[in-house]
Amino acid sequence: MIAVIFGPPGAGKGTQGDNITRMFGLPRVATGDMLRAEVEKGSALGREVEPIMTAGRLAPDDLVVRVIEERLRQTDAARGVLLDGFPRTVAQAEALDRMLRAGGRAVDLVLVLEVPREVLIERLLRRAEAEGRADDTPETIGRRLEVYGQQTAPVLDWYAQHGARVERVDGVGTIEVVRDRIRDAFATVGGDGRKLAS
Ligand code: AMP
To answer: What is the CATH number of the domain that holds 57?
Structure first.
């Protein structure tokens, strides 16, 4: 199964992505985490993306696509993955589609976490205090939400037009309540609480 957890910054993709990994055994592949690890390492790629990430803008499509392509070739991804934070542009969705089609695969489910803007801002400011992420400042949060609306939200229409299953889930509630809604959404694509990947 190839699933995408989709939604604006602060919607809970990371937290619920970990829950999906626990429930269904799908490895979570998060481009934001991968890029932050490169920044931490001080690699050439990390040095290239650091100022972009700090500004709350998107890294170039070809760079992110290369990172994903390499990750999907690893053996643990063979039976499926949960993509988090990718694709974030229509160009990335098209590149992913080509990549998967070459192996006879496709995106099976796009799970959208819906959360109102004021709740997102509240959560991101709280995360700023707890984790101190460089891009969780009030100014950058505004930019990231704007980038989401302009460049990322259109990806959903693209998936709807290209026949992917798009399931919308209310992302407001306790972590457990939202997790259960997600489990129900997975059940609609053939999962029933068993580990899809085993
Ligand atoms: P995230 O942890 O998903 O919020 O990502 C943090 C930052 O990493 C984003 O604001 C972007 O600067 C960069 N990033 C992560 N994923 C992507 C992607 N698929 N395309 C472009 N930039 C990305």
So the answer is: 3.40.50.300
Who's near 39: CB < 8 A, 6+ residues apart? 46, 47, 49, 50, 53
- Probe residue for ligand 1, chosen from 16, 29, 33, 35 as the CB with the greatest number of ligand atoms within 8 Å: 35
The 10s digit of each residue's pLDDT in 151-195 is 999 999 999 999 899 999 999 999 999 999 999 998 887 654 444
Please give the residue range of the domain that contains residue 86. 2-196
The 10s digit of each residue's pLDDT in 89-109 is: 999 999 999 999 999 999 999
- Indicate the top mutation candidate among 88, 89, 99 to test ligand 1's pocket, ranked by most ligand atoms within 8 A of CB: 88
State how far Cα 172 lies from the chain centre: 17
| Number of separate domains in the chain | 1
Q: Is 13 a catalytic residue?
A: yes
pLDDT at 46 over 80: yes
pLDDT value at residue 40: 96
Torsion sign (Cα): 170, 27, 133, 136: negative
